[in-house]
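Researcher: Re-running this chain for the archive, since the previous output was lost when a drive failed. Same request as before.
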Amino acid sequence: MIISLTIIASLFYVLATSHVLSRLFHKQGPSQKLTVILSTVAILAHMLLLVNSVFRADGQDLSIVNVALLTCWVIVVSVTAVSLKFPATLLLPVVYGFAAILTLASLFIPHHVILHSIDVELGLVTHISLSLLAYCVLIISTLYAVQFYFIDKRLKRKDLAIVHSHLPPLMVVERQLYQLLTLGTILLTFALLSGFIFLEGMFASEFIHKTVLSLIAWLIFTVVTVGHLRQGWRGKPVVFSIMIAAFILSLAYFGSRFIQEVILNKF
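Model: Regenerated structure tokens:
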């Protein structure tokens, strides 16, 4: 079942990616109807894959791969939903392509961390939920930053193909970028606060690297957000700062677990 669902999800993600890329610079853009059909099949298969991967007969598998699959699914659903109202021609092939690679790679990466019971605590659930939401929103804002940089660079080169393409206006992308960045930074702030309030040992030896990296990422996101709101910061330095912060946050969320569960597990 898991193998079949993985193949279906990966295949339809690839088909959706190929369709959008084939009409990336077409004036009318990709067919929204076909894109939604292909992506919906992939998203549903991805969701069923998650259910079957996490909820097993011997317990719940909350390995890094399954957490990454869940995060990826949330991002894919969010970007797909946004694309129904706003043009997201550059974002769709990126998220669909990455989702295809991740779902397929999940077949070959060892990822079994079975929990026989989950102790549900309000504080822990709050922290995990805010952290997941913050990460997804900030990653989407990073994708918008990349899209902004790409469009801005092509416009400065006076590339006529992009002027007549289906890509969104630069100012619209910029406005959505900073709205998402502000929201993501606020969510990350509350996620960190909930961790310090409800969890013990945020600076314990086994968690200190996650806490420090998260704080560094939060500081960069906050400086960029406040700098834009008060000083009007924009352009290449802001885009690269957002990308660096997103990379640091990814290391905080997934770095150590990837080393422990995937790399060290092979030796």
